[in-house]
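Changelog-adjacent note: as of this version, every example in the card shows the full chain rather than a window. The one below runs 563 residues end to end.
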Amino acid sequence: MPDVTIEYDLPATMRDGTILRADVYRPTTSGPWPVLLSRLPYGKSTSLMITLLDPMGMARKGTIVVVQDTRGRFASEGDWEPWTFESDDGYDTVRWAATLPDSNGSVGMYGASYFGNTQWMAALSKPPELKAIAPTITWSDPDDGLFSRGGVEELGTNVSWSLWQGFDTLMRRHADDPVAATAALAALVRDVDGLATTGYWELPSGRHPALQRHQVHDLGFERSRREPEWTASCRVAGRHGEVDLPSLNIGGWYDVFCQGTLDNFTAMRAADRPANLIMGPWTHGHFGAQVGDVNFGTAASGEVLGFRGTLSDVQHGWFRQWLASDGGAGDGGPVQPDLPPVLLFVTGINEWREEQEWPLARAVDTEFFLRADGRLTDDPPQVGEGGDTYVYDPADPVPTTGGAALLQDEFRLGPLDQARVEARPDVLVYTTEPLTEDVEVTGRIRAFLHAATDAPTTDWVVRLCDVDADGLSINIVDGIVRVAASPGEFAEHQVDLWSTSHVFRTGHRIRVQVTSSNFPRWDRNLNIGEPVERATAWRPAHQEVAHDAARPSRLFLPVIPAS
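Full-length structure tokens:
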């Protein structure tokens, strides 16, 4: 295993003359070596980023690793405009990285979240030296998990992410005035620390006061103001056919970009591109065995991966197929020949399983109906069965309790005990009888609600839970949709709960929650119909969910038949 040398802040000149800087990790023995590139806005030298990328480990296996600060961030020049320059800068950086000393001319890209998206943007620009990408926990459609979901702003992500990016912005803004920089940073820290108690509650949410105070990028407002530029500069959905590269897509069932990872994989397979998928039980950026209230077992960890090696090992082995100059393993370690097309962690039974496809063709859409007296059955409701009502008050929204979200650290994510949520009067709960056999649900889940409100607009939230023999209810997936309404009139609304792979064990019960908020993960609907960029007033809404023969509210679960 070769030693590694590190060159710091190597300059790469972009087409407009802007200089971006990268740290380069290289084996001390002579090459040629393939190159792995990651482009990120979070600081290429921060310990968190180094741990996530493991450039030393990758380089020791026989790879030149390039970790670059994106435009306008940390050591790189230029103005910080999220998403905007990643296609052109990605193209230019790939071409530069391919010419580094001891490079074999083949470049792969890897990294997570924003720096998963920088891979897709570079791939769409088609630099000839880019041979493969491995985006991890990365969105596909920015309106399905990044900016919004179901027409509702991802408030928890947008506000906290935007404020955190403000630290480097303020340091640059006040680089020549240490006193002003200290004051500005202290004020930003106060707003970051106060998000859970005050910041998330500020209005208008669509032009958030905290972001206006510090004059940092507000993803929600700037995105709506600059369409279609922002959408074009971060959207993968609909453009996969332009990418003629292999991809290794890595995601988590409790990740805020879970469905985006799955959509990217399925689109690449539909375009007949080589693609692999790994889905663990993880949250955003956390790949451990303990997720929320559940210990999924040692094998679930990204450090073990069902005893296949670490995620870093698996990625490096996968890249060897595509980056070696001789088309084989080359000099730098083994390829990963045994990685299946799809590797899923099935929660409930807590096992990794190899599959040949996603979604699974053998899944059968199975209806479960909301019924009177809080029942959930596979039998449809009867004539005259009626419905249930509750009052949704934006001043007292249902608190975010676990799930696939990205929030401040005060909010625990993943699978959590739902007792305090289900005890609220504004949360309807429907539950099956104890199961007489295991029920596996693997695939995308959707709910159809026949519902009415007395407000001109409102939200509907649906959550699927697993209730064990002791009555502990744990969340699996959820979704939201914002609707315009004719007050008092029933309409059918579809709620996309995204996807999972979970086994409800014998003796457990399947549960569905229905409510109208999940705050601060998602922006509160103020029930008044004002645009979110201006709305500061609110009113309660009286909600009704029907479940009779003419208006059946139901859930579609992709059930895997018992073998």
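Structural remarks: The longest helix spans residues 155-173.
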